[in-house]
Amino acid sequence: MKLALIIRPRAERDLAEAGLWYETGNSGTALYFLRCVDAAMAIVTRHAEAGPLQFGPFRRVLVRRFPFGVFYTVEANVIVVHGVFHLSRDPDKIRELLEPGADEPTT
User: Which domain holds residue 61?
Assistant: First the structure.
């Protein structure tokens, strides 16, 4: 059974930043990166428990050919993507960014 997918604003910003970074290096790499992220998300929508638990309820699936992880939760019949982080990041920082309210803009 394929589940619905919700991408939180934090994850959208992560994808935009990473895509921009890859685009400055080599034309076409950003598009390939986004396709690989889409493939990782497609796996998760078909197999919700594909990614192992990382931080509490958060699961992580790896992005093929790129050092990124898609962090998500399974809520009822929905997959919620909370972040897409480079895996060289400090795990404590990733955990902090995944906390509720961390993707809210500050004023």
Answer: 4-98
